[in-house]
Amino acid sequence: MRSPYFPARSVLFKKEPNGVTYRVPALLFLSRSRSFLAFCEERLSPSDSQAHLLVMRRGAFHRNYVEWEDMRVLGTAFLPDHRSMNPCPVYDEFTDTLFLFFIAVLGHTSESYQLATGNNLTRLCYVCSTDDGVTWSPVTDLTTKVIGDTIKEWATFALGPGHGIQLKSGRLLIPAYAYHIECKECFGRLCRTTPHAFCFYSDTHGRTWRFGEAVPVPESVECQMVSVDEEAGTNVLYCNARSPLGHRVQALSLDDGAAFREGQLVQRLVEPGYGCHGSVVGFPAPLHSGRSLDDHLALKPLHPSRHWTSAVSGSSPTPSVATSSSAPNDPYFLTPTWVVYSHPTWTTGRRDLGVFLSLFPRDPDSWRGPWVIYEGPSAYSDLAYLELAPSVGAPPAVAFACLFECGTKTAYDEICFSIFTLYELIDNLPRDVQPGQNNGGRDGQRDAASGTDRTGGHDVRRTAASHEAPCGKKRRRKKSKLTEMCSVC
């Protein structure tokens, strides 16, 4: 059986001996400056009510490594007597302005208190930067101007967490969710609420903001969004949200987030217990000219894994792949958007962070995966898309960065950073995995078969150049059509 392969990882934030914990990661890649911005909450303990300030690290992306600056506190991203939570960065490509949205919650007021009483003590805030996060503006509190009296209809609300997005039109989108008050003092309970995902948006490059209509059903909480171009020339806004119903919820908007249609459960994407935050990021499909997307839906055995640094080292030839510019000469054709998703894969707890791929995200049954990139306790994550240029004249290689919570004892020991290519992702997706198999039972069986020690915290990258078959002969694997589309080494 093939040995598991894990991308290399770097620890960016680590729990301190005095109990200070770093939680809720958010990641942004700025292509203009070739830099990563990693954000998270600094908490006095792992508890939500002990959140304190927001911190960040900047990473300069060189040809085959990332050089990280020291951690620093975002001193302006707070309101007096409030704690700052749920970082949600978004970059305006038109104005080169970086916005960092967050919520500010009064004192140590817990979310459960707000849900029980209906007394909303949360504020909507942001700071911005025009120098890629080197310096930041004073805080702006948008609560009264943007939410207004609607705040009385929400027991509480929050953002993302994780990255926001910008549409081709220039519209900025900040994913959010709110607990709508259904009634107060009903059946002996102080307050009954239902969570619904939605988004804040701006068509004025951040000068003014509004919020759209929420996903009506089913219950949806923490969320992220992707603008999805479809081959037929249509575009939809795709929302993927946490849910307490055992599976993720997805919903579509046909008007760029002004309103969402009814959502649906995604049976292939399971949730543990009360759920966990997950991340989604979209990217243009690396299609061959004149070849239909349908030709590549079936995943077949692929070449062995290769680390992302090989895509920029020029040590091996790059497959001859047409980029999106060579799409069919149909004026109504859009290069389709594929979506990558990250989330813990167990149903019984937050463990074994996995990555999934969908070639047609509108279809809830289109998800392939998971590729487990970290074995052990793991929780929240945030994804970023980037392109690697392997050599002069070669097409860019599609790659992703993931910032995620993990540890050996708990999922909140540290926040780590990894980069992997689309080639690596496809190569490590399991074959013939049915819905409901990506849980602890299947993982346990795999461990027994492969002899893998499930201690978590794997920091050693294994290169699967060849693997021993049961008979002792090396297993040769054929290249699939899907792999041939990926412009990586």
TrEMBL record:
Top-level taxonomic group: Eukaryota
Region annotated Disordered, chain positions: 433-476
Similarity comment: family membership: Belongs to the glycosyl hydrolase 33 family.
Keyword Lipid metabolism recorded: yes
GO terms for MF: exo-alpha-sialidase activity
GO biological process: ganglioside catabolic process; oligosaccharide catabolic process
Keyword Cytoplasm recorded: no
Protein known as: exo-alpha-sialidase
Catalysed reactions, as listed in the record: Hydrolysis of alpha-(2->3)-, alpha-(2->6)-, alpha-(2->8)- glycosidic linkages of terminal sialic acid residues in oligosaccharides, glycoproteins, glycolipids, colominic acid and synthetic substrates
GO cellular component: endoplasmic reticulum; membrane
EC number(s) given by UniProt: 3.2.1.18
Residue ranges annotated for the Sialidase domain, each copy included: 56-384
UniProt entry keywords in alphabetical sequence: Carbohydrate metabolism, Glycosidase, Hydrolase, Lipid degradation, Lipid metabolism
